[in-house]
Structure prediction request, 441 residues.
Amino acid sequence: MKANLRHCARLLMVVMVVALSATVQAERKLLDEVVAVVNEDVILQSELEARISTIIGRLQAQGTNLPPRNVLEDRVLEQLITESIQLQMADRAGMRISDNELNETMANIAQRNNMTPQQFEQQLGQEGVTYQEAREQIRNEMITSRVQQRQVGNRVRVTDREVENYLEATAGDDTSNAEYELAHILIEVEDFNDEEEVSAARDKIESLRNEIADGRDFREVAVAESDASNALDGGDMGWRAENQLPSLVADVVPDLETGTVSPVLENSSGFHIVMVMDRRGGEKAQVIEQSMVRHILVRTSETVSENQAEESIRDIYQQLQDGGDFAALAREYSDDPVSGSDGGNLGWVSPGQMVPEFEQAMMAADVGELTGPFRSQFGWHILEVQDRRQQDISADVRESEARQAIYRRKFDGELQNWLREIRDEAFIEFKGDDSGDSSES
Prediction:
C-alpha cells in the first residue's frame, strides 16, 4: 500500500512538473509573439528587441543620440522585413555562407579594428551583443550582400565609352585620389507627379538640413528620419575615393568643409543631404615593381600522383641545372598550355597577380636565378625571374577605378529602386494590438 502511495505521489509530482513546464512555455510564447508575417517567414518580438538592442549599442558607441523608442522600433522592423525578404530569396537560390568563410570574415573584422578575436568579443559584449549573435548578423549581411550583387548587379552595365568619357571629364584633376568619409540622409519620393508629396518631402529635408546646420547631430537625424537603407547606421556611407563618389554628390563633396551639411540634392529617389565626416589622401603616382618571369608547371591528375609529379619536376630542374634550355623544356613538359607554348613566359607580373606561393618564390628570387621546385594549388613549379622594373601603372589604376566608380554609382541607384520593388511585391502582415493595418501584394 505504501509503495502504491509513493508511486502515486511520484506521478503527481511528474504531472505538476509537466504542467508547470507547459505554463512556462506558454508564457514564453506569449512574450515572444509574432510582430509581422513576411511572405513565408515571421518576425518575432524577440528578434525585434535583439536587433534594437544591437543598434542602440552601436549608436551609443558612436556617441549618436537615440531617436524616440517608437521611431526606432518602426525603423528596425522595416529593416528586418527587408532583410527577411532578401534572406528568403537567398534560401530559394541555395545561397549559403560556410562556417569557415564566416570565421575568416569575423577575424578580418577584428583585425581591421586592430583587435584580437578575444578583444573583439569583449567589445561586442560592451555593446550588449553576444559573439554568437554578431556572427549570425554578419552571416545574414553577407548573404543579403550576395543577393544584392546578383539581383542588382545584373541590371548594371558599364561601357568602354562611359569609362573614356569619365576619364576625359576628370583629366587633370590632381585630387582624384582624395578620400571622403560620408554620411547621407534621404527623404524618399515615390511619385514625383504627386505635387503634394514632393512639396512635403522638400519641406522636410529643408527643415532637417536647417536643424543640422544649427547643431543637431547628423547621424541622429539619419537614424530618426532618413529613408535610405543605411539609416540605422547613422547614414554612414563609409570611405569613398573622389572618383568613386555617387554622381549625385560628385560635384558637391570636394568643395564641402568637413562637418558641413550639403545643399539639398534631388534625383529620382527623392531629396538628399550629405556631410563629409572626414577626409584624407590626395593624388600620387602608382609605382610598383614588376617581374619578368617564366615558369614550368607539372600538375597532379587522375593519372599523375603527387609523388610522380614531384619526381617529374625535380628531373626537369636537374636538366636545367645541367644546362638544359628553359624554353624548350617548358614547351615539352609544362602543363600550363598558354605559357608552355611560349617557352614558359608569363610576361611582366605585378604584385598580387599570382597565387601566394608563386608570388613569395618570385619576390625572393634574384634575377637570372632558378627557383624551385615548389608547390602551389596548381601543382609543382620551377620559375626564373628574367628582369625587374619599376612601373608607373597610374593610367591602368585610373581606368580600373573609373570603371568601378561608374559601376558603384549605377549600383547605388538601382539598389534603392530594387529594395523598394521587393518590399512592394512582398506579402506583409503586421500583428499586435497597435499594428493597425496589413498589406498584401
Summary: The two ends are 68 Å apart (CA to CA). The longest helix spans residues 394-425. The first strand starts at residue 34 and ends at 38. The chain is about 50% helix and 20% strand.
